[in-house]
Amino acid sequence: MSIPIIRRGITVGDRKINSLINDLRATKKKLLEGGGEEKIKAQHAKGKLTARERINLLVDENSFTEINPFVKHRVNWFNMDKKRYPGDGVITGFARINGRPIYLYAQDFTVIGGSLGEMHGKKIARIYDLALKNGMPVIGLIDSGGARIQEGVISLSGYGEIFYRNVMASGVIPQISVILGPCAGGAVYSPALTDFIIVVDKISYMFVTGPQVTKEATGLETTFDELGGARVHAEKSGVAHFLAESEEEAFMLVRELLSYLPSNNMEDPPIVDTNDPADRMDEELNSILPDDSNKPYDVRDIILRIVDNGELLEVQSLFAPNAIVGFARLNGRTVGIIANQPNYLAGALDIDASDKIARFIRFCDAFNIPLVTFVDTPGFLPGIDQEHGGIIRHGAKILYAYSEATVPKVTIILRKAYGGAYIAMSSLHLGTDYVFAWPTAEIAVMGPRAAVRILYKRELASADDPERFLKDQSKKYADLFANPYIAAEMGYVNDIIEPRETRPKIIKVLETLENKRESLPPKKHGNVPL
Ligand code: HXC
């Protein structure tokens, strides 16, 4: 069905303008209907909101200004001349979130399934051009059947133009993609090139090839949800950064996330009055670690006692739970928190945790967000699957990202910091500005038992009671090395502090780093191990 733009005859005298304005009003009213009442009903029946309802929920009240609502496609193949809707299936414009300006686009599934053709693509590209020039974040609300089949290669050009802009905008303005329906085929690569992907349970799905092609190629039956549902991407693939239970929650997440971020890479993140005293000590931190250093605990309990008001916005919280990354504030200023999580895999670094940590560091570094790292890791995870999966390549990303990051970097070694993982987790050697250790820290080449097995291989083999021998020698090794003092004597640890004073200490040193200036040697770009 084609929706004509209303054009009435021009009248004379001062009635002419009134008539034109009335025409414009009527036309604009029509524009709001998207694909029409039936399609809107179908959208609601799927438990989904319309593009305009979504925008209203996302942005500050009455702050949205639409751009290019009249744009239509210009294709006639497959009777497309009868499906020419103003807006071409995507609503674009600017608005405010928490009072700060942003650009956005919202795909309208009620118009030809939100499919992306030439003009639809051009509208999104235009938003990107404006956002990039003006240093404003872009938020994409995605709900689309993908490349518009009737437009053939022309629709692919639309995607290509968007991908290019996603990359140009990377590290310049924050980009957030909210998946609110299908996002399939090559279309997935636009969100994948943005900084954060938010998925909604039972509503979002993303895959390169759908269940049908998967079955043809592999013989395996699967469903949309099993293949690329929200949980899959939040827990297994690591493609999604946040999982929301509803569309409303997804929009709240966007608002919360933006509150931590600057509008572009030339700005600092906003400073918030959190009313949490900078000199607040937390007495309970002094007894928070278990006596047995092999016992797990939730590192979040430590982080929440240190950051402002116990607030942490975790990123990828369900993926690679052996590492924690997220945004918090210290004395009102945004920091990126990175921590090992002893509650899962003893906090060892594996392939997924390495990717998670490295990507987060690089985001923070691009957007002037200081890094605060809490270390408690026995090392990189051993295993054939890890070695064959490329833990060397992936683990190197952490070293690369920390070394390359020029934002303020502060590290607290809570407990274990062994071997390569000691170096990788923001050690002083990688250009970290301050490293502190709790008295419980154990900083050594490897854990005591593993060390004894190597140092006393022959003695162990001939010992009457090997377990006793192992125990005794491990204790000796631990007494010597499983502490922070040798590292502190070497100056690798700048101070050993009481756990309770961690918050004031970090805040104090971050204050000294507020004007930190550091630049990398001139180069086109480095070769991050991908
Ligand atoms: C044109 C499309 C379309 C598309 C949906 N529609 N996808 N039109 N091009 N890609 C139309 C439908 O024909 C229908 O029109 C309307 O949108 C609503 O779609 P339904 O199928 O009725 O909705 P639903 O049952 O919810 O199914 C949604 C869907 C399905 C799963 C997304 O429409 C679907 O499988 N679409 C095709 C997906 C796809 O293969 N896309 C190409 C991917 S390849 P009417 O007129 O009946 O209302 C790709 C390459 C990108 O995207 C490469 C970039 C580099």
How would you characterize the overall build of this protein?
This protein has helices spanning 15-31, 37-45, 51-58, 118-134, 153-169, 189-193, 211-218, 224-228, 230-237, 247-260, 299-306, 351-366, 384-389, 391-404, 419-424, 448-455, 457-462, 466-481, 485-489, 502-512; strands at residues 65-67, 90-97, 100-107, 138-142, 175-179, 182-184, 196-200, 205-207, 242-244, 312-315, 323-330, 333-340, 371-377, 409-418, 434-437, 442-444, 495-496. The chain is of the alpha/beta class and 530 residues long. It has three domains: 1-27; 32-260, 2-enoyl-CoA Hydratase, Chain A, domain 1; 283-447 and 482-512, Alpha-Beta Complex (2-enoyl-CoA Hydratase, Chain A, domain 1). A hairpin with a 2-residue loop joins β2 and β3. α4 packs parallel to α5, α12 (351-366) packs parallel to α14 (391-404) and α16 packs across α18. It is elongated, with a radius of gyration of 27 Å. The two termini are 48 Å apart. The protein binds hexanoyl-coenzyme A. Hexanoyl-coenzyme A is lined by residues 112-113, 115, 145-150, 156, 159, 182, 184-187.
